[in-house]
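ARCHIVE CARD
CATEGORY: sequence design from structure
SOURCE FIELD: tokenized fold
FIELD CONTENT:
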């Protein structure tokens, strides 16, 4: 399975973006799918995760602003990002046992 992330871009503070992570094969057997991010000069960090059954977990910094979801029928995981802030600027990666390529999110002040 390969993972392809998309949906990044430039947005103003307070704006929204929706990231997608499309898998080349079935993700049904992958229990946990997740989004991570890496800001310039910082370590990669977990942003949000979702189990096959729909249980979610979020980093404290994004709780109440980001929503992770998955569509097993479409083999896709989403990250809805609202109320974006400049410190959300990073390359966002999806993970499902393997890493996908990243998509850059830039939030301007």
């Amino acid at each position: 399975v390969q993972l392809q992330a998309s949906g990044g871009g430039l947005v103003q503070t307070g704006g929204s973006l929706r990231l997608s992570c499309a898998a080349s094969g079935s993700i049904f057997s992958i229990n946990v799918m997740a989004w991570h991010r890496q800001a310039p000069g910082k370590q990669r960090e977990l942003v949000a995760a979702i189990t096959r059954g729909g249980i979610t977990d979020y980093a404290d910094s994004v709780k109440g602003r980001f929503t992770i979801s998955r569509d097993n029928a479409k083999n896709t995981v989403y990250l809805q990002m609202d109320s974006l802030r400049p410190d959300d600027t990073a390359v966002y990666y999806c993970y499902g046992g393997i890493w996908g390529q990243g998509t850059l999110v830039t939030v301007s002040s």
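CARD ANNOTATION: The radius of gyration is 13 Å. The mean pLDDT is 95.
SHELF: design records, drawer C
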